[in-house]
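Subject: for your reference before the review

Hello V.,

The reviewers asked for a structural picture of the protein, and I figured it would be easier to keep everything in one thread rather than splitting it across files. Below is the amino acid sequence we used in the manuscript, unchanged from the supplementary table.
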Amino acid sequence: MRVRLSGRTSYSGCSAELNLDARGGVGRALISIKGGRQLNPAMVRDLGGTVATQKAEMGVLITNTAPNRGMVDEANHAGSYRHRITQRRFPRI
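And here is what came back from the structure prediction:
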């Protein structure tokens, strides 16, 4: 899978957009970067809501510290994404 970072910051709460192939036809992932140490499940829910609103295939949350159990549970609850070409499944968040 080829990826290209577009560097867009127009989505609420998201830092960038990642195209999941070179031509942009397969899909995209929204990336959110959180620098604080006070992490909570709402951050994952917010990213999931933005992914749904923007009709992206995936969301990536980058943090300074490891996620807590509530965040992992929220990410698992978000479901998965099936790549249209390879048919491989990936976590949606």
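For the response letter, the relevant points are probably these. The chain is about 25% helix and 25% strand. The CA atoms of residues 5 and 18 lie 5 Å apart.

Happy to draft the paragraph if you're swamped.

O.
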